[in-house]
Amino acid sequence: EEESKEGWENNKRKKDKNQQEATRKDNNRKEIAIGRQQGEVEKKKNETKD
């Protein structure tokens, strides 16, 4: 009984870690996309200034 509980704990920990990693990668992708959008907006602003 104890061993299976420990195995379950380890699996849960692994899953949580994988989930965190996936979330982090997803957030990085979002940040990059947002940064690109902001860069495009800035470019347009600079072009219209002239």
Overview of this protein structure:
It is a single chain. It is rod-shaped, with a radius of gyration of 22 Å. The model has no long low-confidence stretch (mean pLDDT 93). It is 96% helix and 0% strand. The longest helix is centred in the middle third of the chain and has 48 residues, at 2-49. It has one helix spanning 2-49. It contains 1 helix and no strands. The chain is mainly alpha-helical.
| Major sheet attributes | none
Average pLDDT confidence is 93
Query: In total, how many beta strands?
Result: 0
Q: How far do the termini sit from each other? A: 74 Å
- Structural class based on helices, strands and sheet pairing: mainly alpha
Q: Output the radius of gyration.
A: 22 Å
Helix content: over 70%
Total count of helical runs of at least 4 residues: 1
Q: What is the H/E order?
A: H
Number of domains: 1
Envelope shape:
rod-shaped
Range of strand content: under 5%
**Segments where pLDDT lies below 50 for 5+ residues?**
none
